[in-house]
């Protein structure tokens, strides 16, 4: 019986290598043309205004931009804390208990994952707008949709599902024996939460918190629907670009915002390991 | 089940969160089919508003579907081969490249849109065509496709499979089509459903990139929230829900399936 000669290893590896490069080519062209070059252009554009690169100093010296920055960070932090508290509680409850209707609750809690920011804004208008539910049910004129509280609720609306999914994935991996051991040793419930559950969920909570914070910082759709009178960073960028035609300032603020959200996510990931990000 | 007050509190928080997310959704669905929302359901149910949405906005709905499908084709062509190349060469350079491509997940869409506008805004023909919006959508959804496929390819023993095919005389292109793609299918499916779902709902980039001739569904939604009566805005939102919710369910199913296969 004749044995076929083994294929020439070098020949295969050379053609494989060329094929691999060919596989990367469409990605390389697209990324260069529509990501790398535009970002470079954005950065150069930020320095092309009257003040040149001093524009970044101007941001730090202009009270309006500073208060915008503070307000954006403030509302994003509040949303992060609230979403973590609510979603972690719900995640633990849903992981620990099996009951009829559990899957329905889970489906309801993850439904908004696919809602764009504008739709989330509309949901808040339906709750707290002039024709909203609260205004109809409560006596007096209760309209909160267009206030900073309405914005907070809107950001909370799209943050809850994201945080929930990340924390639930981690909660499912906790060994119930740990908790039982703590309980059998006489630990009261709050000690179990502090000493067993939170350390085990810590990395997932950091990752989820980072995602919630970064998403809230950059959320444009919801702010566009609700924050006509509120200065948050994405809205200020939008008005600088469209109404004031101050392209350099819009670019500089965009660069600043992008660096903040990217940095937060990077820190969150390095503290926690992997991430789950979805939607915008 | 509810033995302790702590459990009761947990249940209460979970139910309140559900109510917060679900009540406005139900309101919007009801408002979309109620004759007069201000007078309530007693004014009767109607499909009149859905009809008005159709006459006013059907073009935006079809444009969104068209762009989502085009976006799917482009992300498949770019993403699947690239995921293969990255999976074959797992190294520092691949990680840096993957990180850079994933930038649109971390940088707000508004910033990316401004970047695209400043570089390409002057090319009027491109700027006013739907292809300009397509570019934005591909930019935003490509990382999802790439990661979904990469996750599957990284979990299977690609090298052994390929060596087997190579020893039978299959060239690299043949191996890609006959070995790599079939094995990556669960990831491709999950990625594809994610891409379509995200593209149909994309607003942050699209609002900046759109022109009066290239209005997508979410852009139309924003327009109706600002200028139409509540019933029409709600009916339009209802149409959007009918499109996006089955996609979301399918996407979650496909993603869970791909993850099960990996384990």
TrEMBL record, chain B:
Keyword annotations: Cell inner membrane, Cell membrane, Membrane, Transmembrane, Transmembrane helix, Transport
Record has Transmembrane as a keyword: yes
Bilayer-spanning residue ranges: 55-87, 99-120, 132-156, 176-200, 233-254
Domain ABC transmembrane type-1: 61-251
Domain of life, per lineage: Bacteria
Membrane topology annotation: Multi-pass membrane protein
Compartments it resides in: Cell inner membrane; Cell membrane
SUPFAM superfamilies for the chain: MetI-like
Family recorded in the similarity comment: Belongs to the binding-protein-dependent transport system permease family.
Protein name: ABC transporter permease subunit
Lineage of source species: Bacteria, Pseudomonadati, Pseudomonadota, Alphaproteobacteria, Rhodobacterales
């Amino acid at each position: 019986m004749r044995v076929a000669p083994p294929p020439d290893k070098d020949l295969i590896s050379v053609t494989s290598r060329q094929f691999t490069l060919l596989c990367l080519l469409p990605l390389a062209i697209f990324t260069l043309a529509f990501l790398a070059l535009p970002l470079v252009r954005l950065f150069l554009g930020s320095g092309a205004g009257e003040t040149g690169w001093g524009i970044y100093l101007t941001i730090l010296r202009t009270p309006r931009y500073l208060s915008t920055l503070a307000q954006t960070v403030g509302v994003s932090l509040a949303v992060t804390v609230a979403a973590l508290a609510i979603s972690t509680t719900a995640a633990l409850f849903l992981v620990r208990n099996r009951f009829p209707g559990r899957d329905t609750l889970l489906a309801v809690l993850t439904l908004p994952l696919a809602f764009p920011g504008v739709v989330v804004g509309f949901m808040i208008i339906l709750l707290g707008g002039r024709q909203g539910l609260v205004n109809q049910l409560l006596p007096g004129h209760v309209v909160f949709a267009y206030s900073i509280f309405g914005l907070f609720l809107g950001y909370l609306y799209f943050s809850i599902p994201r945080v929930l999914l990340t924390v639930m994935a981690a909660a499912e991996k906790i060994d119930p024996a740990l908790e039982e051991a703590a309980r059998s040793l006489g630990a009261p419930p709050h000690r179990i939460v502090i000493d067993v559950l939170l350390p085990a969920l810590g990395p997932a909570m950091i990752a989820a918190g980072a995602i919630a914070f970064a998403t809230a910082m950059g959320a444009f759709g919801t702010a566009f629907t609700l924050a006509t009178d509120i200065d948050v960073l994405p809205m200020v960028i939008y008005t600088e670009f469209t109404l004031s035609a101050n392209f350099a300032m819009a670019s500089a603020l965009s660069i600043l915002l992008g660096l903040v959200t990217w940095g937060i996510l990077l820190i969150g990931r390095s503290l926690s390991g992997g991430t789950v990000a979805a939607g915008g | 089940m509810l033995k302790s007050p702590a459990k009761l509190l947990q249940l209460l928080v979970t139910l309140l969160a559900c109510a917060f997310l679900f009540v406005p959704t139900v309101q919007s669905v009801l408002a979309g089919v109620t004759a007069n929302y201000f007078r309530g359901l007693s004014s009767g149910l109607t499909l009149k508003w859905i009809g008005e949405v159709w006459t006013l906005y059907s073009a935006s709905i079809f444009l969104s579907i068209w762009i989502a499908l085009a976006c799917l084709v482009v992300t498949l062509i770019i993403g699947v081969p690239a995921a293969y190349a990255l999976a074959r060469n797992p190294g520092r350079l691949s990680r840096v490249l993957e990180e850079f491509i994933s930038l649109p997940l971390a940088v707000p869409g508004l910033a990316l849109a401004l970047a695209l506008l400043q570089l390409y805004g002057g090319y009027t023909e491109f700027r006013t065509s739907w292809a300009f919006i397509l570019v934005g959508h591909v930019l935003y959804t490509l990382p999802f496709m790439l990661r979904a496929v990469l996750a599957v390819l990284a979990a299977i023993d690609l090298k052994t499979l390929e060596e087997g095919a190579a020893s039978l005389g299959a060239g690299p292109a043949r191996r890609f089509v006959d070995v790599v793609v079939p094995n990556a299918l669960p990831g491709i499916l999950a990625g594809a459903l994610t891409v379509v779902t995200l593209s149909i709902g994309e607003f942050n980039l699209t609002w900046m990139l759109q022109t009066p001739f290239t209005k997508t569904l979410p852009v139309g939604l924003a327009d109706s929230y600002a200028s139409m009566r509540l019933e029409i805005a709600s009916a339009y939102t209802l149409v959007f829900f009918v499109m996006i919710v089955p996609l979301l369910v399918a996407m979650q199913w496909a993603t869970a399936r791909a993850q099960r296969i990996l384990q």
